[in-house]
Amino acid sequence: MSESAPPTAAPTDRSRAARPVPKPGILDIHAYVPGKATVEGGGAPVKLSANENALGSSPKAREAYASAADKLHVYPDSRATIVRTAIAERYRLEPERLIFGCGSDEVFQLLNQTYLEPGDNMVQGEYGFAAFAIGAYAAGGEVRFAREPDYRIDVDEVLKCVDERTRLVFIANPGNPTGTWIPISEIRRLHDNLPPSVVLVLDGAYGEFVTDPTFDDGLDLARTAQNVVVTHTFSKLYGLASLRVGWGYAPAEIIAAMDRIRLPFNTSIPAQMAAVAALHDEDFQRASIDLVEQWRPWLAQQLGGLKLDVVRPSAANFLLVGFPKTPGRTAVEAEAFLAARGLLVRGVTNYGLPHHVRITIGLEGQNRAVVEALAEFMQR
Ligand SMILES: *Cc1c(COP(=O)(O)O)cnc(C)c1O
């Protein structure tokens, strides 16, 4: 299982300790491991390890960001009103039912903090995003990992994990690191079978990349359900990972509870201004989606031709690629081989996938370089 953090801290008498001792459970948590950003020996690497936008960011967003330079001494608007208004208009949502965070990571953390007490549990897919579980453990909760046969969320497996102490279910759709997604009919079946006391969180970080017209991120379900939260982020399609803006849409009661513990100034003025500009730059969004649409099938086909086992179909801006277990050809060795050529991809051992790597779809030359290097790697 990925990210297992059993609550095994020795029962310490913390009051009598010679130095401050963190509360039980904290030191069992494995800190989040970000995708590599540097190569040994320096040089500018090609970073295909964090699912960032290969086209960078919108020029309009950069302009808006720069125009905030004369406001650095001012506290930001705690309610992020300009982003709130823009999101509400774009997605046709009630502005008061939105919450903004330092990335959607903060929204996940707020949900965990608000709903989990020791003895409670949260349920997620076995390959699910590590940030969900870290926040749950930090809140003293337990995490149950539902099997993902075929690298896909299986609603029946999720439901099997739910019991009377379940407070939250986190589903990334599409998933990371799998890239796969499940239809809204399955999401609705999951929702129908969950107790109304359980919060169903639908993380749509990659939803904007899905071009299948039947895909639905769950916002319509969240409009009427009492226990559904949908999250989105400016980090992926909108190309603003550095600025840390994410949002959630939820029933007013859930938003009000989270707002009680949210840090008041959690999104900065430059970030808010850039987010609004990015949201309005539809040309940049179109170009970003087109790039992924053009190169993801090509990359999958080329890697398949090298006898690598591409998890399909990915609807996100990355591919999960399986490697042989033969020494010399393993995923760990492939990651190192690529890194030595300045190509950074993401090992996913800590997601319970020791034989896979995750590769972000890059620009044409970057994708070609990955294929060439892996052809060499497989022929050694
Ligand atoms: C990248 C990503 C996010 C976005 O995180 P931010 O904190 O908004 O940058 C959320 N969920 C998943 C599954 C992701 O991969």
Automatic annotation (TrEMBL):
Belongs to the class-II pyridoxal-phosphate-dependent aminotransferase family. Histidinol-phosphate aminotransferase subfamily. The keyword Transferase applies. GO terms for molecular function: histidinol-phosphate transaminase activity; pyridoxal phosphate binding. This is Histidinol-phosphate aminotransferase. Pathway: Amino-acid biosynthesis; L-histidine biosynthesis; L-histidine from 5-phospho-alpha-D-ribose 1-diphosphate: step 7/9. Its cofactor is pyridoxal 5'-phosphate. Residues 1-22 are annotated as: Disordered. It comes from Phenylobacterium hankyongense. Pfam families: Aminotran_1_2 (PF00155). The modification N6-(pyridoxal phosphate)lysine is found at K236. Homodimer. GO terms for biological process: L-histidine biosynthetic process. It catalyses: L-histidinol phosphate + 2-oxoglutarate = 3-(imidazol-4-yl)-2-oxopropyl phosphate + L-glutamate. The keyword Repeat does not apply. Residues 46-374 form the Aminotransferase class I/classII large domain. Keywords: Amino-acid biosynthesis, Aminotransferase, Histidine biosynthesis, Pyridoxal phosphate, Transferase. It comes from the Bacteria. InterPro entries: Aminotransferase_I/II_large, HisP_aminotrans, HistidinolP_aminotransfase, PyrdxlP-dep_Trfase, PyrdxlP-dep_Trfase_major, PyrdxlP-dep_Trfase_small. Its EC number is 2.6.1.9.
